[in-house]
Amino acid sequence: MRKKLMTLLLSMSLFGTLGGCSITTDISGVSNDDVQASSESKENTTEDSKTIGILMPTKSSERWINDGNDMVEELQKLGYKTDLQYAEDVVETQVSQAENLITKGVDCLVIANIDGESLTDVCQKAHDAGVPVVAYDRLIKNTEYVDYYISFDNTLVGVQIGEYIEEALDLKNASGKSYNIELFAGSPDDNNAHMLYDGAMSVLQQYIDNGSLDVVSGQTNFETVCTLRWDGALAQSRMENILTANYSSGKKIDAIFSSYDGLSRGIVEALRSVGYGSADHPWPIITGQDAETATIKSIIAGEQTQTIFKDTRVLAAQAVKTVDALLKGEEVEVNDTETYENGVKVVPSYLCTPISVDVNNYKEVLVDSGYVTESELK
Hints:
Elements: H1 2-19, H2 32-43, E1 51-56, H3 62-77, E2 81-86, H4 91-104, E3 108-111, H5 120-128, E4 133-136, E5 148-152, H6 154-168, E6 179-184, H7 191-209, E7 213-214, H8 222-225, H9 232-246, E8 255-258, H10 261-272, E9 285-286, H11 293-300, E10 306-309, H12 312-328, E11 349-352, E12 355-358, H13 362-367
Parallel strand pairs: 1-2, 1-3, 3-4, 4-5, 5-11, 6-7, 6-8, 8-9
Antiparallel strand pairs: 10-12
Helix pairs in contact: 3-12, 6-7, 9-10
Keywords: Signal
Subcellular location: Cell envelope
Pfam family, one: Peripla_BP_4
């Protein structure tokens, strides 16, 4: 009888311990090591530890997985509990996740939104519940109740891409030469996509105007060249249509402005299907953003040419500093109080610096810094 009683008590104790843990709604892709690390970190927290809700858009992009994991790790080091969830690019799912976290009583929300205009009501509910909101990498629009914005300098990202094309084609010394180019922008519901495109065109537009760059398809307006949800399959389909309609007579593409690695991979496949990557059709200059592992492999292989490295470790660390200062009532570090107007107010921001990466510097920037290993690139 005593053995049965002890077994029952141990079972009840274990159940109570598990019941007090904060877990995510989406646990797909979590390894045993992740669970163990999370459990070990939770042992260092106290019962009155504050909980941070972290909402990321999707696991389909390597960078968002890194962002989420980096933030969880840094917050738990400081003794915070975390609830990390992914919405797989479904706006309604992310809205529901945010509302549920507010109801559960999280102490702060960090949100990388799917649609920047979808969270007005969520931010109002967070404000009413006394929950501060930090916009992560993507600006939350049309609300006064977003407290801070942490991102990279998105205009500079575009400028760096534009300048890379400018230098690679030596456009300053074009001397009557004309190069064929096509343009691929990001998602129209992401403020970053607009700022990036404007930054790139601040460099490239002059060469389109003087004929040094020829957009053969004629597609230059953001509304025409944008790609919903930054979807690589949509970019591939559009590239295939452009090739069929404008390059079937033997014209060759010299450069492709692509604003994200996922788009670039789709573009590479479209080009490969019509013979690019051969001696007769060498790869054009193809840009990108995010320095994903698959992209660095593509750069090493001579397919994609360039990407923009946005170190998620730096961004996550800054977000954690912001959350920690907010919850402790301390001054929050910002470096931009003018740029990010969300339709209701200028959101105080901290902007990190991006780095342009190609085959010449990827080892120094990515491998030597520990962001990726040599073995991961093989």
